[in-house]
Design a protein that fits this description.
alpha/beta, Transcription Regulator spoIIAA, Rossmann fold, five-stranded parallel beta sheet
Length: 361
């Protein structure tokens, strides 16, 4: 049991504690429940606690006040607030100060509740393993200013010769570390099957896991990827002028599959990407670090994503927001505009729409 993580839940409402015990009874960690803030502090002082869940509105002590003391006694303990209130005004300061990691609204969705706790506990395990990258970081490939650029002459050359050159370029250590820009010259004058060449290029890029941008003035490569590219995170431009200065982009999205796709796409386009999975994490990151753009899912497990845009607006941060959701009809245009959101895109993700939105931001 020495490796079992400990989670404490405190609420002054016994039925709420009973509901949480039932909800989490099969989870792979030790759950302790109490109505007494002092008991929480005693436990945190006497043993290692991975996470504390606390109701905000308790008669003896606000949840945010409790967490400030928990942080002093155990800086590594994750803190999650339970609240039934519709806005973040009473806990925004605690989020900004780092006393609150996440927020769960009452009534909660059981699946989202369990998922959020698992994510935080997994993050704690990763933080304890120095061999793992910190959550949300893009690792050594974040520096896109050093991307490997390679011009590929195609006119009057066989597809095999061109592919050999591309394969060699993809093996370059700089391509593996920083990504590659392949600039095709005379692609329409290729001697051989253009479609076969482009299919093999895709296979080589994906097989090596390289972040790749293709530049083709003829438009043939772009048309090919529009037809068969699907969700392949390979960026295609018509002109070298479209190669942008790197931006630092924060993705706020709770689905790992979508995070990995967006990270690959953003890094392929030459930008830096960091990702968080909740409103609380996003607000904390934006309060401490500058970003050039936020790509925001409006449906998140702990709160509406629109709260992130409100935080940016209220603190007068010069950070544009692009909102993406599969349910855009939930939010009126006026509500979105008042939150300072400049552009909305609909799921499923469309590569060209995202690249255009990033370019225009």
């Amino acid at each position: 049991m020495t490796d079992t993580q400990v989670v404490i839940c405190i609420d002054d409402d016994p039925p709420v504690l009973s509901a949480i015990r039932r909800l989490l009874r099969r989870e792979p960690y030790e759950l302790l429940t109490t109505e007494d803030p002092e008991e929480v502090l005693r436990i945190v002082s006497s043993r290692e606690v991975a996470l504390v869940i606390a109701d905000q509105r308790m008669p003896r002590m606000l949840g945010t006040e409790l967490f400030k003391t928990v942080r002093l006694k155990s800086p590594g303990t994750a803190c999650v607030i339970l609240t039934g209130h519709a806005d973040l005004s009473d806990i925004a300061g605690a989020m900004n100060d780092g006393a609150v990691d996440r927020l769960i609204r009452k009534p909660w969705d059981d699946s989202d509740f369990r998922k959020l706790i698992r994510q935080l506990l997994d993050q704690k395990k990763e933080e304890g393993n120095p061999s793992l990258d910190p959550p949300g970081k893009s690792g050594g490939s974040a520096n896109r200013t050093e991307r490997y650029l390679r011009r590929v002459a195609c006119a009057d050359r066989s597809a095999e010769a061109v592919l050999d050159e591309i394969s060699e370029a993809l093996e370059n250590p700089r391509a593996a570390e920083f990504g590659i820009v392949l600039i095709f010259d005379g692609l329409l004058r290729l001697s051989g099957s253009l479609n076969s060449l482009l299919l093999e290029v895709v296979r080589h890029i994906v097989g090596r896991g390289v972040r790749a941008t293709l530049v083709d003035g003829s438009g043939a490569a772009g048309a090919f990827f529009d037809l068969v590219g699907g969700r392949l995170p390979i960026v295609v431009y018509r002109d070298e002028q479209e190669l942008e200065e790197p931006k630092r982009i924060l993705v706020v999205e709770d689905q790992n599959e979508n995070i990995e796709f967006l990270r690959a796409l953003i890094e392929s386009a030459g930008h830096r990407c960091e990702a968080v999975t909740s409103v609380g994490e996003a607000i904390r990151r934006l309060s401490s670090e500058p970003f050039d753009l936020v790509l925001l899912d409006l449906v998140l497990p702990d709160a509406e994503g629109i709260e992130v845009a409100r935080h940016i607006l209220e603190r007068q941060l010069n950070t544009p927001v692009i909102a993406i959701s599969g349910h855009l009809d939930r939010w009126s245009d006026d509500r979105v505009a008042r939150a300072g959101i400049r552009r909305q895109l609909s799921k499923p993700y469309q590569i060209r729409e995202i690249l255009d939105a990033i370019r225009d931001s």
